Amino acid sequence: MRKVFFGFAVVQLVAVLAQFYLATFGAFERPTPAPGDPGAAIGYHAMNGTMVIPLVSLLTAIVALAARAGGRTAGLAILPFVLVAVQLFVIFPLAEMAGASETGTTTAGLFVLGFHALDGVAILAAAVVLVRRAHALTKSTAAVPAHAAA
Q: Which Pfam families match (predicted)?
């Protein structure tokens, strides 16, 4: 089961790395699409970030628990889900309150939206650490001690 957990952790990391690629893919689309254009290339970034990463994170956390990887490791697996929620329900609404919209931004809105990138880096860090932990678990043959599982 630990090898399955490692596989899920790798899939989560690949989804996060794809998110950075898709951000650039959408940011450099020319001509620049109209705000809210459903065919815009940035839509792939939005879809991956709001659907794929949270789902993979949730499944990875469940598999971590099934693999007896420990509570902290399972928490690390669910962290991308939580950080995506922070983006959707904290950063974006704050940016909107600071004057950012689909058609224009303010300096304050841009300042708040900068945290979107920092949150993405935190998601990447969590995914990298998780892969390292999951890989270490595949190398160990002993069960996780009860005090380490907390």
A: DUF6220
